[in-house]
Amino acid sequence: MTVAASAQDLRPQARPAAPVPAAVELALPAAPAQRPRARPEALQLAAAPVALQATVSTRNAPASTHAVQSAGLRQRTQLAVQNAQAKRARGQRVWCVPFARDASGVQIRGDARTWWHQAAGQYHRSREPHVGAVMNFAPTKKMRRGHVAVVSRIVNSRQILISHANWTRNHVSLDMVAVDVSPRNDWSQVRLEHRPGQMTSTTYPIYGFIQPIRG
């Protein structure tokens, strides 16, 4: 789906230690080159609440845990991109569900709007983001089938990076900003980076995060 973008409500404050790749164009049969670009380390919302109560559990994990998670996620994401490229080469549509399944390892099928309920009793579900987890969007009037994306990085308690497919029609977007705009900082509502540096004006409802952990 295509979403109108706006950056009026966000102001970049700082830059990360290393550049983050922009959205990946899948029109080419070969693996896409990643263009380094500066990305704000934190984005401040004009209407953000003063008190931020939620914490992100992965921030306190040992460095070795982060390294293992990141390495495994990179490998799965590369596979997901390759599979998406192969589909494009065959003239097939690139959807968010197969990409999220390949990139996360969460083996759920069916429309994205059904994933949260399907995950009950199968995978660990959380209201907090975790690297490698699937962020499950609830359906809306314009997004009736829901949406799924994979968390690629935790920036802070209100900002993460995600990788997903078909947010821009038939394309894969890697490491795009997602910002929690919920009043309680519980990740129930988000705004997304549609293109590098451009945020959506629309707020999207979120069921939560599905981790690739059985239980």
UniProtKB/TrEMBL annotation:
Task: Give the signal peptide as a residue range, or say none if absent.
Answer: none
One family from Pfam that matches here is CHAP
Show the InterPro entries listed in the entry. CHAP_dom, Papain-like_cys_pep_sf
**Mind telling me which SUPFAM superfamilies this protein's record contains?**
Cysteine proteinases (SSF54001)
Q: Where is the Peptidase C51 domain?
A: 71-194
Report what the protein is called.
CHAP domain-containing protein
